[in-house]
Specification:
The structure holds two protein chains of two kinds. Chain A has 13 helices and two strands; from the N terminus they run H-H-E-E-H-H-H-H-H-H-H-H-H-H-H. Chain A is mostly helical. Chain A has a single domain, classed as MetI-like fold (Orthogonal Bundle), CATH 1.10.3720.10. Chain A has a two-stranded antiparallel sheet with strand order 1-2. Chain B folds into two domains: about 190 residues, 3-Layer(aba) Sandwich (D-Maltodextrin-Binding Protein, domain 2), CATH 3.40.190.10; about 220 residues, D-Maltodextrin-Binding Protein, domain 2 (3-Layer(aba) Sandwich), CATH 3.40.190.10. Chain B is globular. Classes of the chains: A mainly alpha, B alpha+beta. The interface between A and B is large, with 62 and 53 residues.
Chain lengths: ~300, ~475
């Protein structure tokens, strides 16, 4: 009995030991800013020129102000619209590409090459990408030149002055930047599906589309949900592309102003109170989404 | 362990969320007025001069002026210099995205606790936000360090108005004056107005009604009067009846509404090319292929910006025959205005007050230096006597087809009235032009644009109301 006890070595402490760096970094860089953001959202605290106003405790006044003026709803709508415009083509394209790349019968040559290529746009800095589009699609830019030259348009289309034009460009950029990433995630999901299922279906005479619809899709559901929700969270935090494309103004008519751009506007006057309150709302929203993924992903294990 | 994993995952949520939204917070309050006043008196009364001289600015223009025109400045070749045994440090931050002001503000707020050699001694400001600094105790009253009204008697009044605080003290001084003129293409003037002589063109553009009539003629012959929406903005905004903000309330001046109506009319009738300031289309309109009659520009805009765009071959010499070099001329236009310019301010707490004063005197008051700067750099300097001397000489600009534009500048500069500046000019001008671009583009109604302007303005300046 005694002997047995001595031979039982506990490894638990090593587990905890190795977790310490994570928790330290988490506490310093995430938990403290998180709590202080909540704290800041309760104060009126900004700079009027070189004079600091506050900090004065105002309770939930900042939150009330944000909900009262209603701009946040408009900016949430903008954000979601631009996310959807980019995400719908992105998920269709990614599903298609992932299905092709993982299809055993197609055996696409140079799959590795194509996988690299479609991931490329994600390697460019979003701001550089936005600058590029800003120049390409300007009123006198090359895209307009080509369209007019080919006779498709009779006069240049002013992309940046049109709501749909600007939103469309933001969506196009997000699509180009992220479809490669999504494709790789979905491929990983598809490759996790037992190939015996595909083979059995083929033996039974199922067509490609039937296999895709009845085997791939249902088994891909958890990964698909993960992709949708992470993309939505990323979409809610959309900032750099529209910020650079519209020079931070969310033009035209504030229609490309995203929530984070709005938050950034508050930092012009170092308005930590309002920016904090906005962050808190954004946090709540994203936390709900994240919990949704979390419970969905852990459901099966139980 | 499973439960622990759940806790872990839950804690991860904020990490994903807060990468962007987390913002730092400051707990030290800004120095109260009394403290700042204390630094000031302390600095003024001390006679010992510091060994380090820190200058905050946003480009190297002032640096090159000091290098060339401040006697005794020795350049170390590594971005620092020496005046006697005082080391001069240049802290240069570009103004894009408000970066310069952010950096300057941070340093000024920390000025009280900074070591003597780290304190800001001198910093530069622009007119649109001058009062933000002038109306605080962070800037030194130039009279307190020995720069007298007599020293500054030759400076243009408007350059002093912009840096006069609410108590009537002058808190800064400028080496350049930037009166504006209307620069136009001689060839287009000849074709449409029948003459390219500046005084005759001016006669046809001397008020807004005539200006609009000329615009219609331009359109009829395939030209546009202006390039875009913001071109005439400053001519209206410099001639307002009151400041942007009165008792924390934003007041949109009657004159700005006139700008809106004129620009909308120009846009709808095709008198402009729908460009925005500094956009690629705006630049192209100033080039050899441009079909735009003219641009409102101040001193630097004519011999620097416009000259740069006019050349067909930027590698070749800048002379008549290269692009539209020599095809330009200037006239006063409908109203006097100014655009741009840089002011020098002494920072409260500096331990080099006599050097601050000497730099201010030698580079902004001394007639001989000022005249030399204009002759060598083509900059229009802030000295009435020197400028009038040049104006009455046989000075000719090859770029303007032999015109003596200094003469026109010298006539325009005293007419500028900038008593209506406010600390909010920069932000409000930007938001106003931005909001009304939507109206000119036809995306919103005039009222919606005005509401958008108000909304965006109070996000920028939470202390304001409308």
């Amino acid at each position: 009995m005694l002997k047995k006890k001595a031979s039982c070595v506990s490894y638990t402490k090593w587990g905890y030991l190795f977790l310490i760096p994570f928790f330290l970094i988490y506490i310093v860089f995430s938990l403290v800013p998180l709590v202080s953001t909540f704290y800041n959202s309760l104060f009126e605290n900004y700079m009027s020129g070189l004079t600091q106003v506050g900090p004065e405790f105002v309770g939930l006044e900042n939150l009330r102000k944000i909900f009262a003026d209603g701009d946040m709803l408009k900016y949430t709508k903008n954000t979601l619209i631009m996310w959807l415009l980019g995400f719908i083509p992105q998920i269709i394209m990614s599903l298609l590409l992932a299905a092709w790349f993982t299809d055993l019968r197609l055996r696409i040559k140079g799959a590795g090459f194509f996988k690299t290529i479609i991931y490329m746009p994600n390697l460019i800095m979003a701001s550089a990408f936005a600058m590029l589009f800003f120049a390409l699609f300007s009123d006198i830019g090359p895209v307009n030149d080509i369209l007019v030259e080919l006779g498709i348009l009779s006069q240049p289309f002013r992309f940046m002055s049109s709501v749909n034009g600007t939103r469309g460009l933001v969506a196009l950029m997000n699509f180009l930047m992220w479809f490669g990433n999504t494709t790789i995630l979905l491929m990983a999901g598809m490759m996790g599906i037992d190939t015996a299922l595909f083979e059995a279906a083929q033996v039974d005479g199922a067509k490609s589309f039937q296999i895709f619809r009845l085997i791939t899709m249902p088994l891909l559901k958890p990964i698909l949900l993960y992709v949708v929700i992470t993309s939505l969270i990323g979409g809610m935090q959309m900032f750099d592309v529209p910020q650079i494309l519209t020079n931070g103004d969310g033009t035209p008519n504030n229609s490309t102003m995203t929530l984070i751009m709005y938050l950034n506007k508050h930092l012009y006057s170092k308005n930590y109170g309002m920016a904090g309150a906005l962050s808190v709302i954004l946090f709540m929203f994203t936390a709900v989404l994240s919990l949704l993924v979390y419970f969905n992903l852990t459901k099966k294990e139980n | 362990m499973k439960k622990f994993g759940k806790v872990l995952a839950l804690m991860l949520v904020p990490v994903m969320v807060f990468t962007l939204s987390a913002c730092g917070y400051k707990d030290d309050k800004a120095a109260a007025g009394g403290d700042v006043a204390a630094i000031l008196t302390e600095a003024v009364t001390s006679t010992e001069e510091g060994k380090a001289f820190n200058i905050y600015c946003w480009n190297d223009e002032f640096q090159s002026r000091v290098k060339s025109y401040y006697p005794g400045y020795a350049d170390n070749g590594d971005g620092t210099g020496k005046i006697g045994d005082v080391a001069v440090n240049w802290i240069i931050t570009p103004s894009q995205d408000n970066a310069y002001q952010n950096k300057l503000d941070e340093a000024l707020l920390a000025q009280k606790d900074a070591a003597a050699d780290d304190k800001i001694d001198l910093f530069l400001i622009e007119a649109d936000y001058a009062l933000k600094y002038v109306n605080t105790d962070y800037t030194i009253n130039v009279a307190d360090i020995g720069l007298t009204a007599d020293d500054m008697k030759d400076q243009y009044q408007y350059t002093k108005d912009i840096v006069t605080d609410s108590n009537g003290n002058i808190k800064g001084t400028a080496w350049q004056a930037t009166p504006g003129l209307f620069a136009y293409r001689r060839s287009i003037a000849k074709a449409v107005l029948g003459t390219d002589a500046p005084n005759e063109v001016q006669a046809q553009l001397s008020n807004w009604d005539d200006f609009n009539a000329a615009a219609a003629e331009m359109k009829a012959q395939g030209y546009t009067m202006l390039s875009g929406y913001d071109d005439s903005y400053r001519i209206f905004s410099n001639n307002v009846s009151g400041p942007w903000v009165q008792d924390t309330k934003i007041i949109v001046d009657e004159n700005l509404m006139k700008w809106i109506d004129q620009t909308k009319e120009f846009t709808d009738k095709g008198y402009n090319n729908k460009t925005s300031l500094w956009s690629d289309g705006w630049a192209a309109d100033q080039g050899p292929d441009g079909k735009t009659f003219g641009f409102f520009y101040s001193t630097w805009g004519i011999n620097f910006t416009l000259t740069g765009y006019a050349l067909a071959d930027s590698e070749a010499a800048a002379e008549a025959g290269n692009g539209i070099y020599g095809d330009w001329a200037v006239c006063e236009g409908p109203s006097p205005f100014y655009w741009g310019g840089t002011w020098i301010c002494g920072a409260a707490g500096t331990d080099n007050t006599s050097l601050v004063k000497d730099i201010m005197y030698k580079l902004t008051c001394d007639s001989a230096t000022m005249k030399k700067i204009t002759e060598v750099e083509q900059d229009y300097t802030n000295n009435r006597t020197a400028m009038e001397e040049i104006a009455n000489s046989g000075f000719q600009s090859a770029f303007l087809g032999g015109q003596n534009h200094i003469k026109l500048f010298a006539e325009a500069a005293p007419k500028i009235d900038m008593s209506n500046v406010s600390p909010y000019d920069q932000g409000l001008n930007e938001e106003f032009q931005g909001a009304f671009k939507d109206y000119f583009d036809g995306n919103v109604t005039k009222d919606e644009a005005l509401q958008n302007f108000y909304k965006n303005a109070v996000v920028k300046y939470p202390e304001l109301t409308y």
